[in-house]
C-alpha cells in the first residue's frame, strides 16, 4: 500500500478489513486490507501523526501538534479535537468511551471520547511518557524516566511506582493483574 507523502511512523492499526496508517505528512489513511486501496485520508493535524487506535468506526490519533483527534472512520470527519498536552502525544489506550493519552510533556490525560473533555490529568513522571495501558479501572504507564507507574485515574493518584529498569520503558502489557514492561535495558 502506497500513499503517504512522508515516511509512515510506528502507527498502524487493524480493525476487521480496515487498516489505518499515520505519517509525518500529518495525515492518517484508512485502507482496505482486502483490496489494498486507500479508502479515505483523514486530514486536520498540523504535525506528524505518531500514535493511533481504531475501534469499529472510530479512530483516535495523537500528533506532534500536541493534540488528539477523534475521527469517524467511515465519513473521514474529525468529531473532536482534544487540547491540553503541551508537547507531542506519544501514546494512547482506548477503553470504552475513554482514552488515556501520554505525552512528552510528562503527563497522562484521561479523555471522554464522546464529549472531547479532559476528565483527569495524571502527573508524576519526570520524563516523556512513552507507553500506556488502560483497563477501565487502572492506568499503567511507562516512560523515559525508566519507571512504570500504576494509577487510579479517578483520584489521579499514583498507586505504585515499579522500579527496576535501567533505561527507557518503551512497551507495556497489562491484563488487570500483571504488568509486563519492555525497555531499552
UniProtKB/TrEMBL annotation:
InterPro entries: WD40/YVTN_repeat-like_dom_sf, WD40_PAC1, WD40_repeat_CS, WD40_repeat_dom_sf, WD40_rpt. WD repeats lie at residues 9-41, 42-81, 82-121, 122-161. One of its GO terms (biological process) is ubiquitin recycling. PANTHER family: F-BOX_WD REPEAT-CONTAINING PROTEIN 7, PHOSPHOLIPASE A-2-ACTIVATING PROTEIN. GO terms for molecular function: ubiquitin binding. Keywords: Repeat, WD repeat. This is Uncharacterized protein. Pfam families: WD40. GO terms for cellular component: cytoplasm; nucleus.
Amino acid at each position: 500500500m502506497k500513499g503517504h507523502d512522508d515516511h509512515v511512523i510506528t502507527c498502524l492499526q487493524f480493525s476487521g478489513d480496515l487498516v489505518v496508517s499515520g505519517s509525518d505528512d500529518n495525515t492518517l489513511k484508512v485502507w482496505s486490507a482486502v483490496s489494498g486501496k486507500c479508502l479515505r485520508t483523514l486530514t486536520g493535524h498540523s504535525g506528524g501523526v505518531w500514535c493511533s487506535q481504531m475501534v469499529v468506526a472510530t479512530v483516535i490519533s495523537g500528533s506532534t501538534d500536541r493534540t488528539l483527534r477523534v475521527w469517524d472512520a467511515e465519513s473521514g470527519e474529525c468529531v473532536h479535537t482534544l487540547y491540553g498536552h503541551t508537547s507531542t502525544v506519544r501514546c494512547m489506550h482506548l477503553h470504552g468511551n475513554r482514552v488515556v493519552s501520554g505525552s512528552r510533556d510528562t503527563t497522562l490525560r484521561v479523555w471522554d471520547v464522546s464529549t472531547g473533555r479532559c476528565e483527569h490529568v495524571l502527573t508524576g513522571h519526570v520524563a516523556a511518557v512513552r507507553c500506556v495501558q488502560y483497563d477501565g479501572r487502572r492506568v499503567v504507564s511507562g516512560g523515559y524516566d525508566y519507571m512504570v507507574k500504576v494509577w487510579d485515574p479517578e483520584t489521579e493518584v499514583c498507586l505504585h511506582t515499579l522500579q527496576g529498569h535501567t533505561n527507557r520503558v518503551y512497551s507495556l502489557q497489562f491484563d488487570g493483574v500483571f504488568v509486563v514492561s519492555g525497555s531499552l535495558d
